[in-house]
Protein: non-specific serine/threonine protein kinase
Organism: Caldiarchaeum subterraneum
Amino acid sequence: MDYEDKIEEKLRRREYKLEKEQRYLRKRSELDEVLEEVFDRVTLMTIYELMNDGVIEDLYGVISTGKESRIYYARNKQGEELAVKIYLVTSAEFKRNRLGYVVDDPRFKRIPGDFRKFINLWAQRELKNLEEAYNAGVKVPKPYFVRRNVLGMQFLGVDGSRYPLLHEVEEDMDFNELYGKTLSVVADLYQKAGMVHGDLSQFNVMVTDGPEVYLIDLAQAVGIKHPMAEALLIHGLETLTRFFAKKGVDVEDLDTLMMFVKGGAE
Ligand SMILES: Nc1ncnc2c1ncn2[C@@H]1O[C@H](COP(=O)(O)OP(=O)(O)O)[C@@H](O)[C@H]1O
Ligand SMILES: [Mg+2]
């Protein structure tokens, strides 16, 4: 039996059980209908499993609709606010972009279950990266759970509305302060967690009312020993430098930034 069959069988058993318990027959909400338009069967069942287990108590509206994932605002049983990131299994964009370099790999062509596994791996990787960073005291959303392609983390925002991304911050904010704080978090990620954010930009930094700066979207983060780490760090710092320079910040040169991020060790 391949992966897909196993999941199917598991789902059939689960559905049967749910039906018996009359729970699956509850009146479907509008949200359920919307979910069903967007997600494949296995993903839907994963969401329902998480809801039945109380890992997700309520799933509210969508926060973000990306090409590769959708993020929902949710709450767990304890009433804590969550951001639930659901990686899309059915997105053609995902296959083109993120799969790009493996799409010709026969392993991924022959067995569709492998594509699902591949997506699950991204979700798992993001959770693991969040855990490592969070446990090291780096400002990232607190990780809660991952099941297949569904990841739960701390919601960054107030009363259901998320904080702005760095890229969305009002023009009257102190960008010098944000520059310093952003670099500090990048340095923390490097020095405390031994990691480099694989996709660092003004679109993956969130700014709280403090303002405090949080890094999000860590699926592509790598350890500092990874062969791509240096290149990813340079690319990220260059991207941030361009952003802050446009905002009128007197930015440092790349060498200085690299020294700062690495803690002057190299
Ligand atoms: N923990 C979170 N709390 C609140 N909003 C979030 C959180 N994580 C992500 N978001 C929102 O969802 C968007 C997409 O999330 P991200 O992890 O960057 O995925 P991707 O860029 O792959 O679509 C972010 O730009 C942000 O607006
Ligand atoms: Mg992002």
In short: Residues 120 and 241 are 33 Å apart (CA to CA). Residues 3-158 form a domain with the Phosphorylase Kinase; domain 1 fold (CATH 3.30.200.20). The first strand starts at residue 58 and ends at 65.
